[in-house]
What does this fold into?
Amino acid sequence: MSRAALDTALGPVWVEARDGAVVASGWGEADRAPADPLLVEALAQLAAYFADTRQGFDLPLAHGRGGLQGQVLDALGAIPLGETRTYGDLSKALGAPAQAIGQACGANPLPILIPCHRVLSATGLGGFSAPGGVEAKVWLLRHEGAAGLLI
It folds into this structure.
């Protein structure tokens, strides 16, 4: 297992790789000079995403979750850039309570790479795990062109 980080508009973001796949990401410091080619590529793609020169990620991701949480993470990964869904939308699609959908979003092991920030509550933004919470979520949605949804 190896972990590396880069500075972003939201502060340092790290990614972790194991067995040829990115298995986790999060907020905070890690190695700044990774030797793992997958981590080098993951950081390059994240840097391009934050520089607005890349709209998605082409990385082998392995969230390692089964059951409903795995289904939710897969559904999050299918939400196109610039679009959002509500917890209720995912609840109907997956046949699970909206609260369970929210809990699965909150336990996302790969934030940004699996876009849990694209899920909103029916009446507001919902929560977000990044430092700055909802402000970081708003930044990401604006960055992705979903700002019209916030006005």
